[in-house]
Amino acid sequence: MSNSSPKGVALITGSSTGIGAIYADRLARRGYDLILVARNEERLNAAAAHLRAETGVQVTPLPADLNDKAGLAKVEAVLRDNPNITMLVNNAGVGSVASLLQADVEKMQAMIDLNVTALTRLTHAVAAGFVARGKGTIINISSVVGIAVENLNGVYSASKSYVLSFGHSLQKDLADTGVRVQTVLPGATATEFWDVAGYAPQKTSEITMRADDLVDAALAGLDAGELVTIPGLHETEAWTRWEQDRREMSAKFRNARPAPRYHIA
Predict the structure, then answer these.
(1) Mean pLDDT, residues 23-39 taken together
(2) Of the residues 156, 162, 199, 262, which is catalytic?
(3) How far apart are alpha carbons 190 and 203 in whole angstroms?
(4) What single DSSP character describes residue 186?
(5) The pTM is what?
(6) Which of 23, 111, 179, 239 has the fewest C-beta atoms lying within 10 Å of its C-beta?
(7) What is the dihedral of CA 40, 44, 46, 49, to 10 degrees?
(8) How far is 169 from 91, CA to CA, in rounded Å?
(9) Exposure pattern of 72-93 as b/e (b: 16+ CB <10 Å)?
(10) Angle at 197 between CA 34 and CA 60, to 5 degrees
């Protein structure tokens, strides 16, 4: 087995297929050793073997169900205890196209557990070590429906809004520590996500992006120093205006009295 990579180890969740598998391929080709996390052990081992043969980097499969407390704790421990980890890609997630009234509440809870709770706990597990070492990269995969919240299931959209907000807060909390935080907002992307979410035809829609293009754009955004990367947004000034307006409005909330329109004496 080769010596550890000078770039360190990237741990990628949801890495046996789709966007996570493309991240694994691209980061391996950039010279990162990998820890691949996914539920399906057979697919995970096959992906690891393929990447070892193709790239020559060290690839460690870590089978774990992040919706299971024991599985999540196992990955948290690796993130806390392995000082060679220099990057965390929080990619694992699940979605739905069903309206709230048509949705199974237990499935909605499981979605929150994976998209919000697991992502938060894994980020927390790795952050202190990154800060202590003065370096590290956290990539959190959100979605454009974190902004365009009416487009899919409300719980899914809300979970992705959380990821975007969490990223803003992390960037504030970890400023000047040497730790980078990037939030990626994919639009519709051609992966198995749509089979699980209940709308397979979306994979072949004319507005659906190839997963390879999505990840390549996201990594180009990382290289360029973007804090938020939206590969499908061509008009970058639209995001700049959105962020400027949001931040300017934040200062206007600081009032001890209700607005005059409420006619409170």
Answers:
(1) 97
(2) 156
(3) 4
(4) -
(5) 0.93
(6) 239
(7) -160
(8) 19
(9) bebbbebbeeeeebbbbbbbbb
(10) 10
The residues near 106 (Cβ < 8 Å, ≥ 6 apart) are none
Residue 155, exposed/middle/buried by CB under 10 A (0-12, 13-18, 19+)? Answer: buried
d(CA 114, CA 93): 6
Q: How many Cα atoms within 13 Å fall on the side-chain side of residue 83?
A: 3
What residue ranges define each of the domains in the chain, with the CATH number in brackets? 9-237 (3.40.50.720)
pLDDT digits (tens, 9 = 90+) for 238-251: 999 999 999 999 99
* 156 assigned to active site: yes
Q: Take residue 210 and report the two structure tokens written for it.
A: 């190839």
Q: Are 181 and 140 in contact (CB under 8 A)?
A: yes
Give me the amino acid identity at 135: K
For residues 93 and 141, give the distance between their C-alpha atoms in angstroms, rounded to a whole number.
9
State the residue for tokens 């061509």.
234
* pLDDT value, residue 2: 46
